[in-house]
Amino acid sequence: WILTLTAQTPTNIAVIKYWGKRDESLILPVNDSISVTLDPGHLCTTTTVAVSPAFEQDRMWLNGKEISLSGDRFQSCLREIRARATDVENKEKGIKISKKDWEKLHLHISSFNNFPTAAGLASSAAGLACLVFSLGKLMNVQEDHSQLSAIARQGSGSACRSLYGGFVKWIMGKEENGSDSLAVQLADEKHWDELVIIIAVVSSRQKETSSTSGMRESVETSLLLQHRAKEVVPKRILKMEEAIQNRDFASFAALACADSNQFHAVCLDTSPPIFYMNDTSHRIINCVEKWNRSEEAPQVAYTFDAGPNAVLIARNRKAASLLIQRLLYYFPPNPETDMNSYVLGDKSI
Ligand code: DP6
């Protein structure tokens, strides 16, 4: 017999960034972070997990190619989920799996991203969240989404925020064992649904410094990171929560842009410095800043992760269509140049 389960998880975009760990192996961050999860179907991972007595070992395929499951992060997620497995009964197929059986049974996992991995867009967040969620469902794990998020966190920090839709906060927690470092939903996907997310794929190349090693170097060498984590982010988190509750776009945009810029300032403050943004990223920032200043109220927020691609959040559909016109005019897409393509994450929140 074989039992399978399929789940889909969208990626999330941080508007108050996670950058720096206080514990590398448990993946515990130095500050809280807040993100917005894209709508289902946009930039997401679809994962099918299967269990059968015929499987001789755990195996995983990503976009059709087998990848190794031996890394510590995968192993932590598998171990934590297996430890919480409960009895499963599928009457239709006449299958009964007891809590104890799960220790001996092996899994096959197949994951697909609906966006090109080569585009350098964050895929680990959606991927690890989907892995943990689908395994949890298959094994009838009783934990709630927050508890599952603490497991996904051990796969990749940002993954813990993809367990929920809408606006999500990853609480850094205080416990040494990481039990209180988990995600909570601040507002659901309907709360602020006029926002539109557009991703400008500036470069399709893979980033040179991974988030994991970049943040390690920042923790070791950047004084600005210490200041940011202790003094800046705690206050910003409170203000961002308020802006989200009140759907106050002006505050939301000011906070998101400032936080993205400070995160990249921390990267510059790292020794040796890390450059994630390029000239096109800087030109996009200029273009948005100028436009926002020329209007009565800001129309668009920008945020950049560990790469040059811009995530642009428009206040409504009208602002989004004006933004697209501007982008196509100033930054025409051409895979040969520094503006590869655009991904329209239509109505993302
Ligand atoms: C810049 O979650 O990819 O996107 O925990 O080492 O897997 P690991 O790092 P990762 O870092 C994401 C960093 C960021 C900001 C954010 O998503 O908050």
Helix-strand layout with pairing:
Blueprint: E1 3-10, E2 12-16, E3 21-23, E4 28-29, E5 33-37, E6 44-52, E7 59-62, E8 65-67, H1 72-83, E9 88-90, E10 95-97, E11 106-113, H2 124-138, H3 145-152, E12 167-171, E13 182-187, E14 196-201, H4 211-221, H5 223-245, H6 249-268, H7 279-294, E15 300-304, E16 310-314, H8 317-330, E17 341-345
Helix pairs in contact: 1-2, 2-3, 5-6
GO molecular function: ATP binding; diphosphomevalonate decarboxylase activity
Enzyme class: lyase
Domain Diphosphomevalonate decarboxylase-like N-terminal: 10-183
List keywords for this structure.
349 residues, alpha+beta, 8 helices, globular, binds ligand DP6
3D shape: globular
Elements, N to C (H/E): EEEEEEEEHEEEHHEEEHHHHEEHE
Strand content: 15-25%
Strand order of the largest sheet: 1-6-11-7-8
Determine the fraction of residues in helical runs and give it as a percent range.
25-40%
Task: Output mean pLDDT.
Answer: 93
> Rg to the nearest angstrom?
21 Å
List ligands, each type once.
ligand DP6
Question: What is the CA-CA span between the terminal residues?
Answer: 40 Å
Main sheet record: 5 strands, mixed
Number of strands: 17
Q: Which structural class should the secondary elements be placed in?
A: alpha+beta
- Report the uncertain regions: none
Count of alpha/pi helices: 8
GO biological process, one term: sterol biosynthetic process
EC number: 4.1.1.33
Catalytic activity: (R)-5-diphosphomevalonate + ATP = isopentenyl diphosphate + ADP + phosphate + CO2
Protein name: Diphosphomevalonate decarboxylase
